């Protein structure tokens, strides 16, 4: 028994069911798994590329950071050295000035001392000379001069003489 | 040597008897080949493809990109159906190579796919544009509304007949050719010469055209038309 060569019959309905079944089976066993595999691989590859570019970005950033920090450190070191030099210079200047001040003060003091000693010596000498003069005059004159009355006179004489002699 | 419709293999005794013809049984053979083949090929998918997986992935990738370029990115979900249609049609058409009657040499099979195309157009255009948008689309210049309505139905009908006609014509011509060459053998070598020696060679060459080239062309055309008409109705 054969069907007519050209007729629409039950076969159409059966073929609809067949096509539906084939669609479901091929979707399940062919298209979905293969597509999922392709998509997951694609996602993985693009993720790898993304990761790589992110890592590169980070590396670049770190490198820039390091370069910046290194140049900063260099600058800082330079600054420190400069500061230290400046401070040392200042300190040495200070010390020198101090020493000079001290030395000149000591000199002044010494000079003052010398002057005072000299004056003292001169005075002592003057006193001795006046005593000596009075003694000599007493001896020469032979009579007791009124020490009290004439001392001033002698003193004036000695002062004038002393001044003259010291001025030479 | 006579050209008939498909043989009835058996009848399902419901609804007054549903005849299961050669067409349906051969469709099952094609379905079994496709389903078992894809199960075997996708049994052990690897992240790093190897051997047959490369080919399968290439085919599926090509299908998806083809559907995307033809229908648009938003309609790529049609790809599994288009792929099913193409593979079903192509392998059905090629059954002629193995001396089996192609399921697509039966108007019921091609009409079934045309009917699906018709339903896809109606369902998805209404889903996308709404009933009013769909009606508006049909009456765009109001003067051509009747033509649009006719083409809604004539398109699937022509699709069904085009596919059926090509495959059935191949079947008829191949059958006629075998008959003619057998007759020629009998004429040349006498009626008792049982081996149709002249039927060797020429039918094989023609088979390359009818069973391979036409098989591919018709499968491609029906898939392409389904994609184009469905996406046109949706945009």
From TrEMBL, chain A:
<keyword id="KW-0472">Membrane</keyword>
<keyword id="KW-0066">ATP synthesis</keyword>
<comment type="similarity">
    <text>Belongs to the ATPase B chain family.</text>
</comment>
<dbReference type="InterPro" id="IPR005864">
    <property type="entry name" value="ATP_synth_F0_bsu_bac"/>
</dbReference>
<keyword id="KW-0375">Hydrogen ion transport</keyword>
<feature type="transmembrane region" description="Helical">
    <location>
        <begin position="12"/>
        <end position="31"/>
    </location>
</feature>
<dbReference type="InterPro" id="IPR028987">
    <property type="entry name" value="ATP_synth_B-like_membr_sf"/>
</dbReference>
<keyword id="KW-0175">Coiled coil</keyword>
<keyword id="KW-1133">Transmembrane helix</keyword>
<dbReference type="InterPro" id="IPR002146">
    <property type="entry name" value="ATP_synth_b/b'su_bac/chlpt"/>
</dbReference>
<protein>
    <recommendedName>
        <fullName>ATP synthase subunit b</fullName>
    </recommendedName>
</protein>
<keyword id="KW-0812">Transmembrane</keyword>
<keyword id="KW-1003">Cell membrane</keyword>
<comment type="subunit">
    <text>F-type ATPases have 2 components, F(1) - the catalytic core - and F(0) - the membrane proton channel. F(1) has five subunits: alpha(3), beta(3), gamma(1), delta(1), epsilon(1). F(0) has three main subunits: a(1), b(2) and c(10-14). The alpha and beta chains form an alternating ring which encloses part of the gamma chain. F(1) is attached to F(0) by a central stalk formed by the gamma and epsilon chains, while a peripheral stalk is formed by the delta and b chains.</text>
</comment>
<dbReference type="GO" id="GO:0012505">
    <property type="term" value="C:endomembrane system"/>
</dbReference>
<dbReference type="InterPro" id="IPR050059">
    <property type="entry name" value="ATP_synthase_B_chain"/>
</dbReference>
<dbReference type="GO" id="GO:0046933">
    <property type="term" value="F:proton-transporting ATP synthase activity, rotational mechanism"/>
</dbReference>
<dbReference type="GO" id="GO:0045259">
    <property type="term" value="C:proton-transporting ATP synthase complex"/>
</dbReference>
<dbReference type="Pfam" id="PF00430">
    <property type="entry name" value="ATP-synt_B"/>
</dbReference>
<keyword id="KW-0138">CF(0)</keyword>
<feature type="coiled-coil region">
    <location>
        <begin position="100"/>
        <end position="127"/>
    </location>
</feature>
<dbReference type="GO" id="GO:0005886">
    <property type="term" value="C:plasma membrane"/>
</dbReference>
From TrEMBL, chain B:
<feature type="transmembrane region" description="Helical">
    <location>
        <begin position="23"/>
        <end position="41"/>
    </location>
</feature>
<feature type="transmembrane region" description="Helical">
    <location>
        <begin position="76"/>
        <end position="95"/>
    </location>
</feature>
<dbReference type="GO" id="GO:0045259">
    <property type="term" value="C:proton-transporting ATP synthase complex"/>
</dbReference>
<keyword id="KW-0812">Transmembrane</keyword>
<feature type="transmembrane region" description="Helical">
    <location>
        <begin position="107"/>
        <end position="126"/>
    </location>
</feature>
<feature type="transmembrane region" description="Helical">
    <location>
        <begin position="167"/>
        <end position="189"/>
    </location>
</feature>
<dbReference type="InterPro" id="IPR000568">
    <property type="entry name" value="ATP_synth_F0_asu"/>
</dbReference>
<comment type="function">
    <text>Key component of the proton channel; it plays a direct role in the translocation of protons across the membrane.</text>
</comment>
<dbReference type="Pfam" id="PF00119">
    <property type="entry name" value="ATP-synt_A"/>
</dbReference>
<keyword id="KW-0813">Transport</keyword>
<feature type="transmembrane region" description="Helical">
    <location>
        <begin position="209"/>
        <end position="229"/>
    </location>
</feature>
<keyword id="KW-1003">Cell membrane</keyword>
<keyword id="KW-0406">Ion transport</keyword>
<keyword id="KW-0472">Membrane</keyword>
<keyword id="KW-0066">ATP synthesis</keyword>
<dbReference type="GO" id="GO:0042777">
    <property type="term" value="P:proton motive force-driven plasma membrane ATP synthesis"/>
</dbReference>
<keyword id="KW-0375">Hydrogen ion transport</keyword>
<dbReference type="InterPro" id="IPR035908">
    <property type="entry name" value="F0_ATP_A_sf"/>
</dbReference>
<comment type="similarity">
    <text>Belongs to the ATPase A chain family.</text>
</comment>
<keyword id="KW-0138">CF(0)</keyword>
<dbReference type="InterPro" id="IPR045082">
    <property type="entry name" value="ATP_syn_F0_a_bact/chloroplast"/>
</dbReference>
<keyword id="KW-1133">Transmembrane helix</keyword>
